[in-house]
């Protein structure tokens, strides 16, 4: 192995892929490969959480600032729903997150913090008042 994981992770990854393709399994850096595989899963989870938080922020703004509703917010809601659904289709194991109370609490906390920052409103609920099916449903909007 000529490139260290710590020195250049991209070169290291390319070398590891080459070793796998050449079936030189004894030369593989298995510990770091395992870490990288776990990181892929974490990255997918972060992507879903970030998309959902952006969606929730815009749903909060939609509900709490009805006089400022516009096509831009509607487009963002539609786009984030689309991206969340794509993420769930491409990685079905992530759908379990929609039933995970801690995950929802973390995503909701992030969304509320961002919504407060963007709106100045600070009277948002402590917990998400909407069901996951509503949040990602194509036509639902809070009133």
Protein model, in words:
With 143 residues, the chain is mainly α. The protein has a domain at 43-136. The protein contains five helices and no strands. It has helices at 9-21, 30-64, 71-90, 101-119, 132-136. The longest helix has 35 residues, at 30-64.
Q: Note the main sheet.
A: none
Count of extended strands: 0
Helix content: 55-70%
H/E element order: HHHHH
- How many separate helices? 5
Gyration radius (Cα, Å) is 20 Å
Oligomer: single chain
Kindly name the structural category: mainly alpha
Q: Tell me the β content.
A: under 5%
Taking pLDDT < 50 over at least 5 consecutive residues as the criterion, the unreliable ranges are none
Separation, N- and C-terminal Cα atoms: 60 Å
Morphology call: elongated
User: Can you give the mean pLDDT?
Assistant: 95
Task: Give keywords.
143 residues, mainly alpha, 5 helices, 64% helix
Short description:
By secondary structure, the chain is mainly alpha-helical. It is built from 5 helices and no strands.
Strand and helix map with partners:
Layout: H1 9-21, H2 30-64, H3 71-90, H4 101-119, H5 132-136
Helix pairs in contact: 2-3, 2-4
